[in-house]
Amino acid sequence: MSRINAKNTGVLLIVLLSGVVLGGFLGYLAKDVPYLSWLNYGQQFGIGSSGQGGVVKLNLGVMVLSFGLTIKITIGGIIGIILAIIVYRKL
User: What are the transmembrane regions (predicted)?
Assistant: First the structure.
């Protein structure tokens, strides 16, 4: 992989992550607005998504490590990804 491809992949990853975060944030802000509440509609899945149930624990005697991963995909996040791809193509 050349340096140019690696740089473009890194920029794409940053732009996509920014789109997901901003889209999800805007969806969260719009959840109480009646005509924009659909932006926060989505699905949450992962390990340990609710409380302590499902969290993977590693007891080392001296310390306990807990691992969990939760992903929430919303309409706002999907729109953010689409806009991020459009912005990336314009760069």
Answer: 12-30, 60-88
CA distance 78 to 14: 15
CA 22 to chain centre: 9
Return the H-helix or E-strand segment holding 58. strand 56-59
Strand partners, 66: 57
Question: Strand, coil or helix: what is 11?
Answer: helix
For residue 49, how many other CB atoms are within 10 A of its CB? 15
For 68-85, write each residue's pLDDT tens digit. Answer: 878 888 999 999 999 999
Please write the tens of the pLDDT for every residue from 39-50: 999 888 877 645
pTM of the model: 0.72
Give the containing element (helix H, strand E) for 36.
Answer: none
Q: Rounded distance, CA 20 to CA 69, Å?
A: 16
